[in-house]
Design brief:
mainly alpha; two-stranded antiparallel ribbon
Protein backbone atom coordinates (compact mmCIF):
# COMPACT_ATOMS: atom_id res chain seq x y z
CA UNK A 1 0.00 0.00 0.00
CA UNK A 2 2.84 2.37 0.82
CA UNK A 3 4.39 1.69 -2.58
CA UNK A 4 1.22 2.87 -4.36
CA UNK A 5 1.30 6.18 -2.47
CA UNK A 6 4.91 6.67 -3.45
CA UNK A 7 4.17 6.00 -7.11
CA UNK A 8 1.21 8.40 -7.06
CA UNK A 9 3.41 11.02 -5.40
CA UNK A 10 6.14 10.40 -7.96
CA UNK A 11 3.67 10.67 -10.84
CA UNK A 12 2.24 13.86 -9.38
CA UNK A 13 5.73 15.33 -8.97
CA UNK A 14 6.57 14.48 -12.59
CA UNK A 15 3.28 16.01 -13.72
CA UNK A 16 3.89 19.24 -11.79
CA UNK A 17 7.46 19.57 -13.00
CA UNK A 18 6.55 19.23 -16.66
CA UNK A 19 7.12 22.34 -18.71
CA UNK A 20 3.48 22.58 -19.79
CA UNK A 21 2.17 22.86 -16.24
CA UNK A 22 4.75 25.48 -15.31
CA UNK A 23 3.98 27.44 -18.50
CA UNK A 24 0.27 27.26 -17.69
CA UNK A 25 0.88 28.50 -14.13
CA UNK A 26 2.91 31.43 -15.44
CA UNK A 27 0.11 32.19 -17.92
CA UNK A 28 -2.50 32.18 -15.15
CA UNK A 29 -0.39 34.54 -13.03
CA UNK A 30 0.14 36.92 -15.95
CA UNK A 31 -3.56 36.74 -16.91
CA UNK A 32 -4.58 37.58 -13.33
CA UNK A 33 -2.30 40.60 -13.30
CA UNK A 34 -3.53 41.63 -16.73
CA UNK A 35 -7.12 41.34 -15.50
CA UNK A 36 -6.34 43.65 -12.58
CA UNK A 37 -4.79 46.19 -14.94
CA UNK A 38 -7.79 46.19 -17.29
CA UNK A 39 -10.24 46.37 -14.37
CA UNK A 40 -8.37 49.37 -13.01
CA UNK A 41 -8.29 50.94 -16.46
CA UNK A 42 -12.05 50.52 -16.81
CA UNK A 43 -12.97 51.59 -13.27
CA UNK A 44 -10.44 54.39 -12.87
CA UNK A 45 -10.22 55.80 -16.40
CA UNK A 46 -13.07 54.78 -18.75
CA UNK A 47 -15.99 54.91 -16.31
CA UNK A 48 -15.11 58.35 -14.85
CA UNK A 49 -14.55 59.63 -18.39
CA UNK A 50 -17.92 58.29 -19.58
CA UNK A 51 -19.58 59.68 -16.43
CA UNK A 52 -18.07 63.09 -17.12
CA UNK A 53 -19.20 63.04 -20.75
CA UNK A 54 -22.74 61.94 -19.83
CA UNK A 55 -23.25 64.45 -17.08
CA UNK A 56 -20.83 64.48 -14.18
CA UNK A 57 -21.94 61.23 -12.54
CA UNK A 58 -20.26 58.05 -11.32
CA UNK A 59 -21.50 55.33 -13.66
CA UNK A 60 -20.26 52.53 -11.41
CA UNK A 61 -22.84 53.63 -8.85
CA UNK A 62 -25.67 53.77 -11.37
CA UNK A 63 -28.32 51.60 -9.70
CA UNK A 64 -32.05 51.02 -9.81
CA UNK A 65 -33.63 50.47 -6.43
CA UNK A 66 -36.48 48.00 -6.78
CA UNK A 67 -37.36 47.89 -3.08
CA UNK A 68 -36.02 50.61 -0.81
CA UNK A 69 -34.36 49.80 2.49
CA UNK A 70 -36.56 49.68 5.58
CA UNK A 71 -35.20 51.82 8.41
CA UNK A 72 -36.29 52.06 12.04
CA UNK A 73 -34.67 54.46 14.51
CA UNK A 74 -31.88 55.22 12.03
CA UNK A 75 -30.93 51.55 11.63
CA UNK A 76 -31.45 49.45 8.52
CA UNK A 77 -33.92 46.70 9.34
CA UNK A 78 -34.22 45.35 5.81
CA UNK A 79 -31.64 45.93 3.06
CA UNK A 80 -32.71 47.51 -0.22
CA UNK A 81 -33.05 45.39 -3.35
CA UNK A 82 -30.87 47.11 -5.92
CA UNK A 83 -29.97 46.28 -9.52
CA UNK A 84 -26.47 47.54 -10.25
CA UNK A 85 -26.46 48.66 -13.89
CA UNK A 86 -23.24 50.59 -13.38
CA UNK A 87 -21.37 47.53 -12.12
CA UNK A 88 -22.69 45.51 -15.05
CA UNK A 89 -21.63 48.23 -17.48
CA UNK A 90 -18.17 48.27 -15.91
CA UNK A 91 -17.79 44.48 -16.22
CA UNK A 92 -19.04 44.52 -19.84
CA UNK A 93 -16.52 47.22 -20.78
CA UNK A 94 -13.81 45.24 -18.96
CA UNK A 95 -14.75 42.09 -20.92
CA UNK A 96 -14.81 43.92 -24.25
CA UNK A 97 -11.40 45.46 -23.56
CA UNK A 98 -9.85 42.09 -22.64
CA UNK A 99 -11.49 40.37 -25.63
CA UNK A 100 -10.18 43.11 -27.95
CA UNK A 101 -6.63 42.78 -26.62
CA UNK A 102 -6.71 38.97 -26.90
CA UNK A 103 -8.08 39.27 -30.44
CA UNK A 104 -5.28 41.66 -31.39
CA UNK A 105 -2.64 39.38 -29.83
CA UNK A 106 -3.95 36.36 -31.76
CA UNK A 107 -4.16 38.44 -34.95
CA UNK A 108 -0.52 39.54 -34.55
CA UNK A 109 0.56 35.97 -33.77
CA UNK A 110 -1.23 34.56 -36.83
CA UNK A 111 0.10 37.32 -39.11
CA UNK A 112 3.65 36.72 -37.87
CA UNK A 113 3.21 32.96 -38.33
CA UNK A 114 1.91 33.44 -41.90
CA UNK A 115 4.84 35.73 -42.79
CA UNK A 116 7.33 33.20 -41.39
CA UNK A 117 5.69 30.33 -43.32
CA UNK A 118 5.74 32.34 -46.56
CA UNK A 119 9.44 33.10 -46.07
CA UNK A 120 10.17 29.41 -45.50
CA UNK A 121 8.20 28.41 -48.59
CA UNK A 122 9.93 31.06 -50.69
CA UNK A 123 13.32 29.96 -49.40
CA UNK A 124 12.50 26.32 -50.13
CA UNK A 125 11.45 27.21 -53.70
CA UNK A 126 14.60 29.25 -54.32
CA UNK A 127 17.02 26.60 -53.09
CA UNK A 128 17.54 23.70 -55.46
CA UNK A 129 16.72 20.35 -53.99
CA UNK A 130 19.81 18.40 -53.02
CA UNK A 131 20.72 15.87 -55.63
CA UNK A 132 20.17 12.30 -54.61
CA UNK A 133 23.15 10.06 -55.06
CA UNK A 134 23.00 8.23 -58.34
CA UNK A 135 22.47 4.51 -58.21
CA UNK A 136 25.33 2.51 -59.63
CA UNK A 137 24.89 1.37 -63.20
CA UNK A 138 24.61 -2.31 -64.01
CA UNK A 139 28.16 -2.23 -65.49
CA UNK A 140 29.54 -0.83 -62.19
CA UNK A 141 27.69 -3.48 -60.19
CA UNK A 142 28.95 -6.28 -62.44
CA UNK A 143 32.51 -4.92 -62.20
CA UNK A 144 32.27 -4.84 -58.39
CA UNK A 145 30.95 -8.42 -58.34
CA UNK A 146 33.74 -9.57 -60.62
CA UNK A 147 36.36 -7.92 -58.37
CA UNK A 148 34.88 -9.62 -55.30
CA UNK A 149 34.80 -12.99 -57.04
CA UNK A 150 38.44 -12.64 -58.04
CA UNK A 151 39.36 -11.80 -54.43
CA UNK A 152 37.55 -14.91 -53.18
CA UNK A 153 39.21 -17.16 -55.80
CA UNK A 154 42.68 -15.96 -54.77
CA UNK A 155 42.12 -17.04 -51.19
Amino acid sequence: MKKDKKSIFTEFKEFILRGNVIDMAIGVIIATSFGKITTSLVNDVFMPFLGGVIGDMDLTKLNWTMIPAVMENGEVVKEAVVIGFGSLLSVVIDFILIALIIFLMIKIFNTTKDIAEKKLLKKAEEEPAPEEPKAPTSEELLTDILVELKKQNKK
